């Protein structure tokens, strides 16, 4: 029968094509249009042919019929977004609380152990050094501090070799392993081992637990071996980590003054720059800063930020680091001018209410001061001394050390001398001890949570072994204080304890099936930065996955950029509960296609954390959910089919609680749960019930596909290779019509092709696109390759299955096929052409068929720019402007400014986002890009037109292919009409405005800036330094007056 149908089709086609050519010959070169009627008939015939193939091999009509049979037995519910987000927030609150309680137990154990310990300067203690464990000397003996330490690969820890019975200790390379302070700290902190193990027993979902000591060592559980880099160095210092800094200190506003007078030339300026860089390392997202260089004049390191402070996020700190290299020494140092400016900035910024509204400090980096400048301090800072003064003497000479120490001591700060680059790190850290004193004296164990970051406590090459790539996580941390009475006024911080929470663990609490095809959940921090969001892209690929420099400070407004007034962002930052709606433009298929829809956003806060949670539901089918009902016996029977699979990243059953379940696949877990063979398994009963329903309803399609595959007269040329199905519960079925070795695209529907499978963030691309098509029609596309050539040899066709025939009906499933491109094109046409170009394009303007095969997959506007411009003018297509604030752009290494500019991407470039190799040495830098996407207007089915060129008229016809997202375009090729798409030029100097912009943020709920019992006389010193009596007396008097 199919053979007769094809013969009839080609017979009709030949008649129309002959008539078309005859008519066309008469109009070439004139202003008349190409015959629309002929094109329309051909499009109709091709549309019927290709839909017949897609429907037949996908089994779409059978599946639609099966769901219809159950229509009377199902109930449809409208999703209550507000209740859903509150329920999710409560679930996350409970999960976060368990983590913080584990940390609290570590704090209590650490403080008790230290209270019972007496410092012994001669203590000898052999501990497990994380670098030296299991290392032997040439004679085969274990190295000192490197005893045998049993390591076993553990799947819960990324299959890394670990010891789940013991922790071990990492000491920074620049510190002495046997320093008495370190040995004593390691000794008393051994008591944490028991608590580490107990915590892990109570909550098997815990991963790394650790204690970062104020002395610099890092105790980590489970124990793991650390490997130095190629230079034999481990640069990791726990005191530089954000979780340590946030837990140890309160938010702060900081002005850094750098002496660039002539005496600072050479090594001194190098040390000064490194000191500034180390100070920047200790600043976090709740801090604000600026850097001013001074000689006889003031020089803001970033002139754009004259007279203000900027948030200390990673992007801003890196920006300032780049500008440090432009400093050079000359002239005379006028410190009085710099101090006046610093105090004025801090005062003015404090009055704006934008900063930390907590601690304030001035960091002075110089090789000397000729005066104590007490008149300036008396004017701005005494007697309250609200601004602390930290002074860093650069160089070996101590001629002006007295003055610098006096300034620090008189202003509740700290003085230190830095003689070499090796001294920088430890000396900079001293100021953290001072700022932590009020919190320690208050004995306030504030729980802090970090923004999302990528774990790097073990070497990156080991983390890359994870099939998910580098692990994005947040850390919960608490400070550990000395409780010994004699140290109370000194406010001694012992360190910080913490544990990591992978972001993917948060995603497990989110029922993706309740959010619909385009729905998603997301969370942000008190600063508006993303904790989790499907549009967050922390990595980029340049041979291997690398972290973007500013990946941890991507603002919600940079992914939900349609909210120009930050209504959604600000409400969430302010911990409100509510709803917000807006039209959004969601990019798919590697950013080259766009779906325009209206989203309803529901949001609330997660109590006990600085985070807020949001849920986005798309209007229409995305707001509805249905429940089916079948018996467990029926469902289990149909789950046994070999072609059934479930979404790996969805949480049908919790397999993390008990170690024996860790390796269990979700499908296997469901079967064991339903049969009662694993009573300890915890499963989502509602989701499991709906999986059973979908398994039963979709089961007949397996026999249908099998019958097609066994009928050798069908698909004899093996043009259709794969049929596939997916349901709203993450259930998938796949059928191969050819052998696996004959597949043209072997990655399709595998873990390597993440866009086309169910994952924690989204439904498959073919499912999402089909859901936005008119019911009953197919969406066709050529998958975009990640390769530069961007060529693909397959065409994917898919269609959505709806329960009811209206917009409120949930989309219950999607089915489709993948066929060879050559097969698809052969179904188009092969007859000779006369004076025309014929194209088949999709609803986003990409070419599926062209006379020149090399044009396949390209954007139509690249080939026929004049015609595309005309289609835009006539309204057949519309241009949508998109923004990417997480892009990576190539820039010359010598010129980094362009990396931060808003770039306009031409239509030629945006259709191939893979950077092209160039002769100049370039690097990838973060950038903001604006680029266009194109969408057809659904109401316009056909259009004809003429374009006036230099000496001729170019005529064209565009006709929609019925029941598809495709258009046939016939263009007169005898008239040469060169034209590129118009695109706007944009100002590339928006960097300054971005730096100045201060978005609404919520400060941490606690502040410990000062304490009346604080011992401000602990203010540093230098070997051999003897302060003048008058200089010592004044700060003591001030200390009395200030209490």
UniProtKB/TrEMBL annotation:
List cellular component terms (GO): GABA-ergic synapse; presynaptic active zone membrane; voltage-gated calcium channel complex
Q: Which lineage ranks, top first, belong to the organism behind this chain?
A: Eukaryota, Metazoa, Chordata, Craniata, Vertebrata
Q: Which GO terms describe its molecular function?
A: metal ion binding; voltage-gated calcium channel activity
Q: Which InterPro entries match?
A: Ca_channel_alpha-2/delta, VDCC_a2/dsu, VWA_N, VWF_A, vWFA_dom_sf
Q: Which family does it belong to?
A: Belongs to the calcium channel subunit alpha-2/delta family.
Q: Where in the cell is it found?
A: Membrane
Q: Which topology term describes how it sits in the membrane?
A: Single-pass type I membrane protein
VWFA domain sequence ranges: 253-435
One Gene Ontology BP term is: regulation of presynapse organization
Q: Would you tell me the protein name for this molecule?
A: Calcium voltage-gated channel auxiliary subunit alpha2delta 3
- Which PANTHER family does this entry report, sorted A to Z? VOLTAGE-DEPENDENT CALCIUM CHANNEL SUBUNIT ALPHA-2/DELTA-RELATED, VOLTAGE-DEPENDENT CALCIUM CHANNEL SUBUNIT ALPHA-2_DELTA-3
Q: Give the organism, scientific name.
A: Chelonoidis abingdonii
Q: Which UniProt keywords apply?
A: Calcium, Calcium channel, Calcium transport, Disulfide bond, Glycoprotein, Ion channel, Ion transport, Membrane, Metal-binding, Signal, Transmembrane, Transmembrane helix, Transport, Voltage-gated channel
